[in-house]
Amino acid sequence: MKHLVTVSTLEVNEILQILSDAENYRVNQRGWYPKEKMFVANLFFEASTRTRCSFEMAEQKLGLTTIPFEVTTSSVQKGETLYDTIETLAAIGVQSVVIRHPEDRYYEKLQEQVSIPILNAGDGCGQHPTQCLLDLLTIQQEFGSFKGLKIAIMGDLRHSRVARSNAEMLTKLGATVYFAGPEEWRDESNPYGTYIGVDEAIQTVDVVMLLRIQFERHSKNHSTLEEEYHSRYGLTVEREKSMKNGSIILHPAPVNRGVEIADELVECQRSRIFKQMENGVYIRMAVLARSLQSVERGMNDENNYQ
Ligand code: CP
């Protein structure tokens, strides 16, 4: 079985293979197709536009059948556990589940217990593996490789699953990662970067990776900080002018326009924000294909016993 719950378990070769598969799907507009009809379900316990819709698009492009599942009208409302929900779907024929959940590492025990692969679409403040992979693809398309690149991850580092996944993988692939942003949102538990000032980061790096302020995960009222955020830590029109030639802007979105980034920069020449979203479809095709190929191999193994 081929779960994808964290990027930490991916070897460099496997990451590069996923990026290559995704790029082939993008360029050739063709995917892998299952030998027989296959079924998946998307379980979103938290709000999403990009991740959910691009998984659904990826499933359509691979010819998969998506079984509709809505948390608000499911038996989750009657207290059914995540394990029972997944095994119920497995029992009726679903072969892989995509899950977004507010709890950090919701998958830890589940991955040993369930009978079908889990693709993590984001867990609390933990990991967002497919966002990380689509960010890597966007950087690779721009620069060809990761070695020697300087990348600044900026903003709400403490609450960001994107920051954790990306800093680890970019370091593994040979880039140098810097962090910048408010002291209050530093993440001392993330060892894969060095803290520098916002202006120094913006002026020196190849990739300015902005993070959304995760208002929904803040326990304290940071309203004063939020008001000042754009001028002190955001990518203002003035700061963008000081960026290096050829450097690019990423943001996982949704964007708080006028907070992390000036409204007029969201679609500027350096911005790859909508490109990231497009790449999300191809990355999700690649990870769905890998997970379902492992299911197919399992089916074949079972057939071999008959
Ligand atoms: N970037 C991202 O995960 O966006 P959604 O929350 O809209 O899926």
TrEMBL record:
Residues 2-141 form the Aspartate/ornithine carbamoyltransferase carbamoyl-P binding domain. L-aspartate binds at K78, R161, R212. Residues 147-289 form the Aspartate/ornithine carbamoyltransferase Asp/Orn-binding domain. GO terms for cellular component: cytosol. Pfam families: OTCace, OTCace_N. Its EC number is 2.1.3.2. Pathway: Pyrimidine metabolism; UMP biosynthesis via de novo pathway; (S)-dihydroorotate from bicarbonate: step 2/3. It is an enzyme of class 2 (transferase). It catalyses: carbamoyl phosphate + L-aspartate = N-carbamoyl-L-aspartate + phosphate + H(+). PROSITE patterns: CARBAMOYLTRANSFERASE (PS00097). One of its GO terms (biological process) is 'de novo' pyrimidine nucleobase biosynthetic process. Carbamoyl phosphate binds at R50, T51, R100, H128, Q131, A253, P254. Keywords: Pyrimidine biosynthesis, Transferase. One of its GO terms (molecular function) is aspartate carbamoyltransferase activity. Catalyzes the condensation of carbamoyl phosphate and aspartate to form carbamoyl aspartate and inorganic phosphate, the committed step in the de novo pyrimidine nucleotide biosynthesis pathway. Belongs to the aspartate/ornithine carbamoyltransferase superfamily. ATCase family. NCBIfam families: asp_carb_tr (TIGR00670), PRK00856.1 (NF002032). Heterododecamer (2C3:3R2) of six catalytic PyrB chains organized as two trimers (C3), and six regulatory PyrI chains organized as three dimers (R2). This is Aspartate carbamoyltransferase.
